[in-house]
Amino acid sequence: MNRILGDRTGRMRERFLSVRLGNLDRQNDKLRNEVSALHSQLDHEREEHEELRDALRSKPKAGFVRVLLIGGGAYLLGAHAGRERYDEVLRWARSLPDRMRRTADDVTTQVDVGASKLEDRAEQKMADADMASRRTAKVPNTVRS
């Protein structure tokens, strides 16, 4: 009896250890996959870091220099223009909505005038057509033989 119990406990222990070993193998595979993904991500970040470092070490680009020169020129012109020019630009900017409103009113007026001219022309053509049809109605239809 002891021998039977010993065999069964040995089999149970073996089964338990094999299940545990399987679980540990699966966890180990998951960890390997995560490590692999982290390595590839780290390599990608290192490449980006190197590209950024190279870009910072390189000579300034022509576009940057151009922006710097234009900005400096604008600053100098602005500084020389002073407060008077600032006030003039400010008045111009504040008058912009009024000018836009006047322009919109002018366009509306022009459209109204154009529409009324078209209406008058259409009425004139209708009247001419009516007169022409009355003239042809007065002429008798005669057939010469």
Structural class: mainly alpha
Number of helices: 2
User: Order of helices and strands, N to C?
Assistant: HH
Report the sheet-strand fraction. Answer: under 5%
> How many strands?
0
Which regions are unreliable across 5 or more consecutive residues at pLDDT < 50?
A: none
Distance between the termini: 145 Å
- Report the average pLDDT across residues: 81
Globular, elongated, flat, extended or rod-shaped: what is the shape?
elongated
Largest sheet composition:
none
Our Rg estimate from Cα atoms comes to 47 Å
Tell me roughly what share of residues is in helical segments: over 70%
Structure, explained:
The longest helix is centred in the last third of the chain and has 77 residues. This protein is an all-alpha fold and 145 residues long. It has 2 helices and no strands. Helix content is 92%, strand content 0%.
